[in-house]
From TrEMBL:
Cofactor: Zn(2+)
Keywords, alphabetical: Hydrolase, Metal-binding, Metalloprotease, Protease, Zinc
SUPFAM superfamilies found in the cross-reference section: Metalloproteases ('zincins'), catalytic domain (SSF55486)
Protein name: Uncharacterized protein
Gene Ontology MF terms: metallopeptidase activity; zinc ion binding
Source organism of this protein record: Thermosulfuriphilus ammonigenes
Gene Ontology biological-process entries: proteolysis
PANTHER family listed in its UniProt record: ARCHAEMETZINCIN (PTHR15910), ARCHAEMETZINCIN-2 (PTHR15910:SF1)
Pfam family, one: Peptidase_M54
Length: 185
């Protein structure tokens, strides 16, 4: 697997500038990667399935890659529900060959409560973004529910995770991933 140093985040819907800025700063500080904001894009119409009323994640990722062919890694933030070949509802999806991923803002906006709902959304986004980067760095899903590499099937699982990798995943990163020299967690 090739290494990467630069991540481009592409908003595909409504997300506040302060949340985007916080996301880029958090991901950059935790991974030591360069994180840039790409121009906003609308979700691709051909990716929309009118029966499911959701967007097909694979098509979104291909669309992102066509718009940013030179990017090391590209991650889209789509303000809609998405599905994959296997699951009818996904929070995020990654494609290794494309070195790209997509995150559903729609699902991450569920159960926003408390005094600082935007801060909670930004934290969820950071966790899912770093989860995607973990996959692209060679990590699989982890059995530890506090680890960022634990699979989230809902936002409550995302909220329970710490903003970092467990010791086992940190060792795996050091032993053979492009992010091996970076300390996360």
């Amino acid at each position: 697997m090739r290494s990467f140093k630069r991540v481009i985040i592409v908003p595909m819907g409504s997300l506040g500038a302060s949340c985007l800025q916080r996301l880029m700063e958090t991901v950059s500080s935790l991974t030591s990667l360069s994180v840039d904001l790409g121009p906003s894009l609308p979700p691709p119409i051909p990716a929309f399935n009118p029966v499911k009323r959701k967007f097909y994640s694979h098509f979104i990722i291909e669309y992102l890659r066509r718009h940013h062919p030179q990017a090391d890694v590209i991650i889209g933030l789509v303000d809609a529900d998405i599905y994959s070949e296997i699951l009818d509802n996904v929070i995020s999806e990654v494609q290794h060959l494309q070195q790209a991923g997509v995150i559903s803002l729609s699902l991450l906006k569920e159960f926003l409560f408390g005094e600082r709902p935007e801060a909670l959304l930004c934290e969820r986004l950071a966790k899912e973004t770093i989860h995607i980067l973990g996959h692209l760095s060679g990590l699989g899903h982890c059995h530890n529910p506090r680890c960022l590499m634990y699979p989230s099937h809902g936002v409550l699982e995302t909220d329970f995770k710490q903003l970092g990798f467990c010791p086992e995943c940190q060792i795996r990163l050091r032993l053979g991933s492009p992010m091996a020299s970076r300390r996360i967690g």
